[in-house]
Amino acid sequence: MSEQSIPAPPFEVADRPPSRTPSAPATSDAPSDTRSDAPLSRQRVIPLRHPGRWIATAVVLVLVAQFAHGLVTNPFYQWGRFQYWFARPVILQGLLITLEVAALSAVLGLVGGIVLALMRQSRNPILRAVSWTYVWLFRSVPLIVVLLVLYNFSALYKTLSLGVPFGPGFVHFNESALATDLVVATLGLSLNEAAYAAEVVRSGILSVDQGQHEAAAALGLPRGYQFRRIVLPQALRAIVPAYVNQLIGLIKGTSLVFYVSLLDLFGEVQNMGSTYPGDVVPLLLVATVWYVVLTSVVSVVQFYVERHYSRGALRTVPPTPLQRLRASLRQLRERADFGSTVNS
After folding, report:
1. Which of 169, 178, 263, 288 suits a disulfide with 267, CB 3.0-4.6 Å?
2. What is the pTM of this model?
3. Average pLDDT estimate for 24-44
C-alpha cells in the first residue's frame, strides 16, 4: 500500500498546541492582567454590577440621614430633659417592677401553656375540651378587660374557700388581702399569656416528626420521659422563635398594668408626665428607649438559644455577630491583598 493511501488521524491537528506566529505578536499597550495568556492569579475578576441595589442603598441612606438629623436638631424632643429623666430613681423603680411582672408572667404563662398543650394532645375528651375552651376564651377577651375584671374581683367574691362543691368550705381566704396590685397584674398577664403559649407549644410538638414518637414508643420509654428528653428538645427549635415573639409582646403589654394601679415603667412615666406637663415628650422617649433596650436583650438571648438548639439540625452552627464581623474584616483584608498583588 502506498503512503498516499494512508489517511491522517483526525485528532492530530486538535492535539497539536496552537503555535504563535512571529508575525502576530501581542500588543504591548494592552494591560498584562487582561490578556488571555496571563495566569489565572493575574487576571482581574470583574464582579456583576447591581445598579438598582446601589440606588436603593443611596435612597435609604439619605432617608436615614434626614431622620437622624431631624431627631437630633429638633428642639421639640428636649434631649437635655431626656438625659435628666433617663436614669432617675423613680424611672428605675418602675423599670424594676416591669421586669418583675414580665419575668413572673413569662414563667407562669409558659408553664400554663405547656400544661394546656398537653391537655389538648390528651386522649381524654374532657381535658381536650377544657383546654380548647380556655384558649378560645382568653384569646377572645382583651387583656385590659382581664386585668380590670381581676382588679374588681373582690366585688364579686369577698372570700375564697376550698372544700366540698356546693357544700361547706374547709379553708377560707380573704380575697382583698391576697389580691394586691402586683398579684393582680401578674395573674392577669399569666392567664392571658398561657392561652397564646399553649398554641405555640402545641405547634412545636406537632412539628416533631412522627417517627420520633414511634421510635421512643418502640423502646418502651415512659410517655413523660419521651416528652422531656426526645420530643421537647426537638420542639424547642420551633417553640423558641414564636415564644420569644410572645415574650416581647408581654414586655410591652406590661404597660397596661398602670390601669390596675401598679406603677411600672409606663405608669411612672404617666405619673411624672402629669406632674411635669412640659416634659411629656422626653418622658415618652425615656419609656421608648427602655422598652427598646429590654426587647433587644431578649432578642440577643433568643439568638444564642436558637443557636444552641440548632446544633443537631444544621450542618454548621450559625456564626455569632462577632464571628461575622471577623469574617467580614478578613474578606476585606483578602481583597486588599489581592488588589495590591494585581497592581504590582
Report:
1. 263
2. 0.72
3. 54
